Queue: 4 jobs
Job 1
Amino acid sequence: MKTRCGWVSKDPLYLQYHDEEWGVPLHDDRRLFEFLILEGAQAGLSWLTILKKRDNYRRALAGFDARKLAHFGAGDLRRLLADPGIVRNRLKLEAAIANAQAFLAVQAEAGSFERFIWSFTDGATIQNRWRSLKDVPAQTVQAQAMSRALKQRGFRFVGPTICYAFMQAVGMVNDHVVRCFRYRQLARVR
């Protein structure tokens, strides 16, 4: 039997996410944008809730195409607020649209969002060696710096805890506990 991180439930969707996706270094701008938006949507909720709604978010938010999402207007916002397939929180949905605009500005400034965001870890995954979940921090100095930089550029729902969850999800840090079968696998991935 595989040993996994203690936060994983027996839900098949959660198991698949942990085993195949969480902590894998991600360098694709659109996917990075998707995770940033979903981590903000998750604030105050369980990640499993967001995972179950991820396909609905992809449909509702133009496949996380920042160019399209940046042009969403009042009618689009009304449509999103009426969509039972996503979290219908006005502030989070307005933030997704504003974040698309800020994302495009960062791409123009840095050449890619990937280059900008990975600069907070010097372009490499930070290999942590946590023995248990209680050792894993809620935020780090890198996440705090990322949060400040994103907020300065107009992003919303990007506090340091959300930024650290983002860093974990997209493999900027390897926060699988050392006994988890994925820890060693991802320690070799860059």
Note: Residues 3 and 180 are 5 Å apart (CA to CA).
Job 2
Amino acid sequence: MRISSTSPSGISDSGRTRLAKLIRSREGPLRIAEAAEVLGLGRRETSWLLSAWVRRGWMQRISRGVYSPVPVETQAARPAIDPWVVAATLFSPCYVTGWSAAGEWNLTEQLYRVTAVVSKRRVRRRRMTTGGGEYLVTTRLLPTEGVVTRWREGVRIPLADPSLTIVDMLDDPALGPGIRETGRTLVAYLRSDSRRDDVLLRYADERGNGAVFKRLGFLLERLAPAEEAMIAACRTRLTHGYAKLDPAVPAADRRRLARWRIIENVRGIGEPQERA
């Protein structure tokens, strides 16, 4: 972000100096404690200063205690901040996954305005709107591998690699969104250069959720029946108990498939046009 050489109105000389120092200190949103450290001020004074800049249009309040400078040369337009940049700040430690990552890896042609995130940080609401963006957040421990880096607006964004993206969708089909789109993304993965069967199985083993292999085996058998080795690998990892094919769908029609220990509460998966 660059500071204009012209003297903006509504802010003192010392204020312009502090604002310039803050903007040059880092890219993307920042928290009050970070701003206080850069400015050499106390937390209360920094909070007051940031709020004053928001009222005058020099800062944007992304969320409680999180702010982003508005570049002087684009102040009037007040452009929306990249939602991935906001997510990396608000939900850290976290990573972008689900349909958002699938789009990055060309595993889906669907475009969703909601950014899917896995975060170690517990949030009050799973689905929220903040900073001009919408987010779907899954809270759980972060994986030991499978997270790579992308840079957006000078900010490091943790992102699920293709195999982790698939495992996340199988673990929580809402990140798909839904089991049908998860199945389509799985088929795209099987056809892609990003396919790594051993990596996919290793990530799924690490997840420790038996439902992942139940859903994966079911989808493979319906959508890619020629994948015999992968299907067999899922069979050897079946756990006791039944899992819903899609937990977000009411299981009123409780058709239980003993072969995969799945409650098939979504019908019609495996039509000819869906298969790999």
Note: The mean pLDDT is 85.
Job 3
Amino acid sequence: MIRILFGVVLGVILVPVAAFTWLRFGQVPVAVADKPFPQEGLIAHIPLEERIDREMVKTPPIQPDETSLVAGARIYGEQCAVCHGFYGKPAPIGKNMFPEAPPLWEKHHNGQVVGVSDDPPGETYWKVANGMRLSGMPSFKPILSENEMWQVSILLANADKPLPPDALAFVSGNPSATAAPPATPAPPTPGTGAPH
């Protein structure tokens, strides 16, 4: 009995000391280029998915109409494209993150799903609003309004569908294409122009 108790006490002390020693002096993978821990993705993925399922809003408060899609595309171009890329233009920064930031305008390997268009808008909204630890994904609550976060989430849920031309211009990284051409001044009416 004393040996068992000694073994338990030794294990309770030895395991934390060994873990601390490894964290302090070992080769812990902390750089992006390091090999991940065994099962690191699984360990991080399970609690994230459980929390999102528990907290996400099931019914979005806005619909994917032209106004919300164009607004979401503008926000995407300003806030998201630096990591997630534009349509047809992957982001170099996103490829050098760990985990890699998903390219949100590319089709998946099966050729059907674009970006996160297979996720419910509420899941994307949760990720935009709250961010994700250890991924580089920030929380946009301090930056965007609730409506703006929904607009970009609705846009990404519809990334596999045809978009309005103005929205497509923003997600292609060409927002100047949406600008109205400058108005051509009307010729002055005879007798009303400024004197020369």
Note: Residues 2-25 form the longest helix (24 residues).
Job 4
Amino acid sequence: MIICGLAGSVTAQEKKAQMLKGWGDVTDPDGDCKIQIKKSKLLITVPGTLHDLNPRNNKINAPFVLQEIEGDFSAQVKVSGDFQPGEKSTAPNSPPFNGAGLLLWQDDKNYLRLERNVWFASDGKYTCHPPLFEQCQNGEYTNHNSATTTEPFFKRSTHLRFERRGDKITAALSHDGKIWSIVKEIIAPYSSKVKVGVDAINTSTKPFTVEFDELKLIKS
């Protein structure tokens, strides 16, 4: 079964949770993000206030769009946008940061993030994990990230993929959607039914817009 984005739109100010056909349920905890579909692409704009999925900041208020799936699956999406968070942060414990990508969600204490990302570091350089791969397990942060880089890594568009086989989760990345590189494989005993989709994180004072396309969710 392959599911991909279809026409439709939603303004999150009107409703905090609504279904977008082909993408899933919209969740916008603060009700201030703009979430819409244009020409089959899902666009999320996060204002320049703190929107994070980070237990260290005590904030689980980023927007995401998810659909439920049971058992083994693969999920992939194309992520495009200008990741330039600027120099001012809205988070007391974090630098200004933009992140967007795939989210595997069991509940607000158990989830997995695979994201394009950029933050403005204290040395005055833009820095990223190529890509970010973070887990929250029982409310505690678990780091699966590779080493950071200040060299240009992401192109205008990047493809991200999760594969679940039993308790094993494989994260992968591609710059063209054809040649894939495995980021890491981990053991993560989530429940049989989970939700999967996309998220957008902003801890910068600048608004952040990200575009998602070519969503594929395949049940194995």
Note: Residues 1-16 have pLDDT under 50 and may be disordered.
